[in-house]
Amino acid sequence: MIKILMIEDDPEFSEFLGEYLEKYNMQITNYEDPFLGLSAGISNFDILILDLTLPGMDGLDVCQKISQNYDIPIIISSARSDITDKIMGLQIGADYYLPKPYDPKEMYAVIQSLLRRMKKTSKDNYENNESDLFKLDKSKLQIKFQDEILILTQAEYEVLACLIEKKNAIVSREQIVNNCDSLSDSYSKSLDVIIGRLRTKLNEDSKNIKYLHSVRGLGYKISQ
């Protein structure tokens, strides 16, 4: 199931599009309020469909916030026809600008195209980017750091793998817990302990963090 986050203040439109895409194993979760959309666990979705005319916050501002913090394809879906909006949207991180009205078949085609591109890019990066400090092998449940296999507990592996998959993006504590079976109970205390152990295994200097960063009030991110 492809999970689609939609931030659109027209519920009838989002429902119409959702019913069409559902036939292709795509599920839309829509938020009419952009502030709720921004706190919706964005890393758990495969793609974002974003309107520009939203209550309380312009869609371009939403686009910029998400593109700066998350690695997710963004499709702007808007009735605003000003070429400046289109140029600005693409410059600040949108991957496609689809003007309303449009046939849902066109949206389906755009989604398929972006997901294929992301899959190819991800594969190419894994195969060709030998400079990555972290290498995740999910088939063997192994993580290499600077080409050396890390000796990790199950919980440490799950936390670090979650962060590596979202490298350079901020991952909230809640998102980490939701992706880690070993952290189902008393996660707040357990996560702090695990992060500390991981930093030790990465030879991190507490006064000069290079890889496993805490982002106050938001969560953690891994840098490569």
Set out the fold topology.
Blueprint: E1 2-7, H1 11-22, E2 26-31, H2 34-38, E3 47-50, H3 59-69, E4 74-78, H4 83-91, E5 96-99, H5 104-128, E6 134-137, E7 142-145, E8 148-149, H6 154-165, H7 173-178, H8 187-201, E9 212-215, E10 219-222
Parallel strand pairs: 1-2, 1-3, 3-4, 4-5
Antiparallel strand pairs: 6-7, 7-8, 9-10
General description of the model:
With 224 residues, this protein is an alpha/beta fold. Helix content is 42%, strand content 19%. It is built from eight helices and ten strands. It has helices spanning 11-22, 34-38, 59-69, 83-91, 104-128, 154-165, 173-178, 187-201; strands spanning 2-7, 26-31, 47-50, 74-78, 96-99, 134-137, 142-145, 148-149, 212-215, 219-222. It has a five-stranded parallel beta sheet with strand order 2-1-3-4-5, sandwiched between helices. The chain has a three-stranded antiparallel beta sheet with strand order 6-7-8, covered by helices on one side. The chain has a two-stranded antiparallel ribbon with strand order 9-10. A hairpin with a 4-residue loop joins strand 6 (134-137) and strand 7. The protein starts with a strand and ends with a strand. 29% of the residues are buried. Residues 126-131 have low confidence and may be disordered.
